[in-house]
Structures are given as C-alpha cells and as structure tokens.
Amino acid sequence: SFPGGRRDPADGDAVATALRETREELGVAVAATSVWGQLRTLPDRHGMTVAPVVANLGPLEALTLNPNPDEVEEVFTLPLAHLLREENQGYTHFRTASGYGYTLPVFLNGPHKVWGLTAIVTELTLELLVPGHY
To answer: DSSP letter string over 76-113?
Structure first.
C-alpha cells in the first residue's frame, strides 16, 4: 500500500497529511512543491474516506528510503512500463454475502500483487498520467 494514515490536528489538509505520513513511514521528505495534485476521494472498506495525493519524487535511484519498521514490512517499486504491460494487469472479482458483486484491478509483479485500494489508486493515477495507454 501507499503511505497513509489519519489526519492529525496539526495537518492543514490532505496534502499535509500525505507529506507527513510519507516522511514518517518511508523517511522521505517530499516538498509541497513536488505535489502534482489530489485524486478524487475514495471510501475504504471500513467506511473511511481516503484522499490520494500524487507527487513527483524524482528519480528513485536518488531517493534514500528509511522505512519505519513499526509501520513498513517491505518496500518495492514498479516502473511505469511494467504497470502498462497487459500481462501484468488483471482483475479480481468479489461477491458479498448479500450477492452483490464487484471487480477490482490487480497489478502483478513476481511475488507481489498490488490489489485493493492501492490498485484502485494506481489505476486512477495511470489513467491520469498515460491516458490512452492504460
């Protein structure tokens, strides 16, 4: 999943929350000027509202990550080209006890599967960054 968490009283807005959470979870200080914008809000499975924020971190090779072991088990990245390959894209079908069904995207990468809300945010980001290619 992406860095994230509840808004603290000191956070001015969703962008401030995202920047703080990225710093706390990954040890990466992202400047507010690197923020490209905010995607539409989404409900999570617990009824909370998630406000995805998209920012440019620059070349990944230039980043020094210092993940917080209390919050982050593992870090991996996926290149844009990998996400755009059809063989790395899929869908998962769910059905609730009441019979309601829905489909969510999945992105594959060896032992890693990006699914759930993270895959939805990834899909929305791809639609924005590379319209017509995803």
So the answer is: ----HHHHHSGGGEEEEEEE-TTS-EEEEEEEEETTEE
Cα torsion for 95, 100, 105, 109, to the nearest 10°? Answer: -10
Instruction: Please give the angle made by the CA atoms of 84, 113 and 46, to the nearest 5 degrees.
Output: 110
Residues in the chain: 134
Look at residue 88 and tell me whether its pLDDT is greater than 90. Answer: yes
Q: Cβ(104)–Cβ(94) under 8 Å? A: yes
Q: Sketch the domain layout of the chain as residue ranges.
A: 1-75, 76-133
Has this prediction a pTM greater than 0.85?
yes
3-class secondary structure, 54: strand
